[in-house]
């Protein structure tokens, strides 16, 4: 199915994800006009300087006016407020979407504000970094990454295809599933791993002062990787854990049981159990690499760190 071209694309929230979408849409010519808005006047001023938007709108409502597609790129708990602001502006046939890391809560928060003549199609690009803000985005962020669409029951297939076409245009591979299933899968693949990183880095920080400074001095490999993840945006991750509570607690329960089994194997010197476990997990890493998805941690070879000389 060929999807109709996007005349006006409105991006609400110009941080890492919103600015990456605006840059990719402009660079790849996916929309005639890219309008960007952000609640923070300082961010709007930086977007003007960075020049990745055709228009910088003062409000979300102004950005959404006459847009074919509006994408909320804000922390999950702000998605309802954005929908309330843009809902009355949505023209017939317009699509309202988002990029939130949790989908059930977003659907619930946004749906009441979408008029019957418009379409709500939530989405989640499974691509990101530990950086935030308009300087952190880059057009190649979504290339060869998944974008998961979670259309509600009865969603218009043409609208779904139109949104899917935009994500494919930005280089993503698109898949659709229910919001509930998304939240369960992402709880184990993304949310619990972030919690583990926040926890282990916190534990290191709570050690006595001399030990903490040695942890920092000698950190390499494993711990260093955790510190990258634990540097991720506090607002974003607070919202993820507040809104995907049930699935995260379910996966954390399983995680804790498995950790206890490993702890027991160490206590009783059960080398066979440890070896069998590590062999199974090594195979999972290999299958991820074979699927070409091993780059969950972004490499700086693909883009400069914000603030670094280009
Ligand atoms: N960072 C990642 O790795 C990543 C990856 C995939 C999806 N996501 C999701 O994308 C969304 C945005 O994340 P980000 O990393 O781009 O965050 P960010 O902090 O870089 O940017 C968020 C922007 O939203 C603006 N904002 C907040 N409330 C607003 C409102 N009510 N109206 C207008 N603007 C508002 C903020 O001023 C900020 O500029 C989150 O829901 C997050 O879960 C993030
Ligand atoms: O690589 C990173 O920095 C990320 O954490 C990206 C990551 C992930 O967990 O894979 C984080 C949250 C998003 O919802 C999607 C992607």
Automatic annotation (TrEMBL):
Superkingdom of origin organism: Bacteria
Gene Ontology molecular functions: NAD+ binding; prephenate dehydrogenase (NAD+) activity; prephenate dehydrogenase (NADP+) activity
Keyword Amino-acid biosynthesis: yes
Catalytic activity: prephenate + NAD(+) = 3-(4-hydroxyphenyl)pyruvate + CO2 + NADH
Domain Prephenate/arogenate dehydrogenase: 7-296
Keyword Manganese: no
Record-linked InterPro entries: 6-PGluconate_DH-like_C_sf (IPR008927), NAD(P)-bd_dom_sf (IPR036291), PDH_C (IPR046825), PDH_N (IPR046826), Preph/Arog_dehydrog (IPR050812), Prephen_DH (IPR003099)
Pathway participation: Amino-acid biosynthesis; L-tyrosine biosynthesis; (4-hydroxyphenyl)pyruvate from prephenate (NAD(+) route): step 1/1
Any Gene Ontology biological process: tyrosine biosynthetic process
Pfam family, any one: PDH_C
EC number: 1.3.1.12
Keywords: Amino-acid biosynthesis, Aromatic amino acid biosynthesis, NAD, Oxidoreductase, Tyrosine biosynthesis
Family label: Belongs to the prephenate/arogenate dehydrogenase family.
Protein name stated in the entry: prephenate dehydrogenase
């Amino acid at each position: 199915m060929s999807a109709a071209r996007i005349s006006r694309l409105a991006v609400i929230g110009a941080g890492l994800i919103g600015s990456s979408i605006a840059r990719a849409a402009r660079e790849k010519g996916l929309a005639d006009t890219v309008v960007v808005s952000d609640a923070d006047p300082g961010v709007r001023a930086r977007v003007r300087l960075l020049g990745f938007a055709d228009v910088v709108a003062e409000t979300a409502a102004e950005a959404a006016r006459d847009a074919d597609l509006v994408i909320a790129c804000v922390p999950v708990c702000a998605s309802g407020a954005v929908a309330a602001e843009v809902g009355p502006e949505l023209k017939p046939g317009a699509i309202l979407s988002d990029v939130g890391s949790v989908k059930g809560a977003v659907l619930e928060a946004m749906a009441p504000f979408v008029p019957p003549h418009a379409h709500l199609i939530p989405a989640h690009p499974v691509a990101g970094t530990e950086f935030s803000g308009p300087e952190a985005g880059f057009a190649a962020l979504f290339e060869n990454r998944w974008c998961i669409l979670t259309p509600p029951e009865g969603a218009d297939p043409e609208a779904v295809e139109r949104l899917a076409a935009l994500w494919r245009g930005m280089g993503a591979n698109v898949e659709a599933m229910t919001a509930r299933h998304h939240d369960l899968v992402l709880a184990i693949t993304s949310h619990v791993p972030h919690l583990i990183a926040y926890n282990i880095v916190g534990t290191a920080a709570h050690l006595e002062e001399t030990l903490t400074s040695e942890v920092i001095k000698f950190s390499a490999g494993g711990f260093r990787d955790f510190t990258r993840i634990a540097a991720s945006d506090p607002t974003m991750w607070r919202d993820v854990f507040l809104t995907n509570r049930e699935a995260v607690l379910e996966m954390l329960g399983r995680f804790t049981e498995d950790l206890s089994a490993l702890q027991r194997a160490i206590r009783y010197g059960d080398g066979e159990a440890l070896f069998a476990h590590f062999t199974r997990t090594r195979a999972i890493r290999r299958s991820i690499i074979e699927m070409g998805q091993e780059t969950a941690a972004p490499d700086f070879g693909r883009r400069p760190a914000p603030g670094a000389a280009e």
